[in-house]
Design goal:
The protein is α+β, with helices and mostly antiparallel strands and about 325 residues long. The protein has 10 helices and 13 strands. About 35% of the residues lie in helices and about 30% in strands. It is globular. The structure holds 4-diphosphocytidyl-2-C-methyl-D-erythritol and adenosine-5'-triphosphate. This is 4-diphosphocytidyl-2-C-methyl-D-erythritol kinase.
Amino acid sequence: MSLAVESRGVTVRVPGKINLELVVGPLREDSYHELATIYHAVGIYDYVTAIEAESWSVEVTGATAEGVPANGTNLALKAAKMLARRFGVEGAVALSIDKNIPVAGGMAGGSADAAAALVACEALWELQLTRDELEPIAAKLGSDVPFLLHGGTAIGSGRGERLAPVLARGELHWVLWVSPEAGLSTPQVYAECDRLREAAGIEVGDPTPSGALVAALRTMHPGEVGAALRNDLQEAAISLRPVLSEVLEAGTTLGAQGAIVSGSGPTVVFLVGTQAEAIDLSVGLAARGPAGDIRRATGPVAGAQVIQSVSPTGPQNFTG
Ligand SMILES: C[C@](O)(CO)[C@H](O)COP(=O)(O)OP(=O)(O)OC[C@H]1O[C@@H](n2ccc(N)nc2=O)[C@H](O)[C@@H]1O
Ligand SMILES: Nc1ncnc2c1ncn2[C@@H]1O[C@H](COP(=O)(O)OP(=O)(O)OP(=O)(O)O)[C@@H](O)[C@H]1O
């Protein structure tokens, strides 16, 4: 995307995330669940451009734009306004979002756009803030937003907003099954998880990340990482969307080394060993799996990054 030269603007690229591990603890008094999660940013991107403007606005285009609000409820616009309020910025911005991350798909697309809007506006307004300094505002916008500021692979605790880096060298190859139906609501999936636990008489304690996954991430061996994937919301997502169990089974039968629902779903992700295996699995799933959009991505990738900045003196491009 390129900007008109007469306007000052910044474009940020931001990835979606999956949760390699999502251990859901008890419901807290503030209505959030205590979590132990391992976030992993994957190379499916939204692009958020912030241009100096007289009044606040947002427009949404791109492959997955349908259903995304182009008004004050858009999380990216909320993020830009919150940053302006916090630092006494008087101007406004016109945001445009080029959307490719599945919507309500469990890949934190709205959170990604919010993180991107913070990074874009911070650069546009020359606030000189570090990512760590943006984190408290990010956490107010949503539990997943701080992670999308950083990307990579990281442990999340608290309600998911407290981050610690994980040593993960190398690259993982993923095949994604994206639901052709509407997405799932995150609060509904958490509520279904509570309901299923209550019905089964299951009481959970404080969540802790499993050593097995952290150890597997040190070698990045796909068989070991695949065997250690865990998502406590998976059963709830399947309960609300039964086709997901067929999707998981189809990918496993076709040779995936790991198969898991992403976050609150309904996107399903499969881990394979190489790019060639990813192509083979995509072809097999498209031919024999339940109907869905099949995509490929690698991870980990960086979080929100400025890729272009335009001023009256001309554009400046950044690699990323
Ligand atoms: C499913 C995940 O994507 C896994 O990373 C996140 O936990 C959801 O993160 P998010 O979409 O940024 O969620 P938020 O916007 O903070 O919260 C939306 C709703 O999800 C539920 N929620 C979220 C996070 C959490 N730790 N416990 C919860 O129960 C709550 O009902 C909350 O009202
Ligand atoms: N910029 C945005 N992009 C996508 N959805 C947005 C945005 N702003 C607000 N929304 C609203 O948020 C809802 C959830 O969208 P999102 O794509 O973030 O879900 P998700 O990927 O399941 O989230 P998570 O994985 O963080 O639980 C959408 O249905 C939409 O109404």
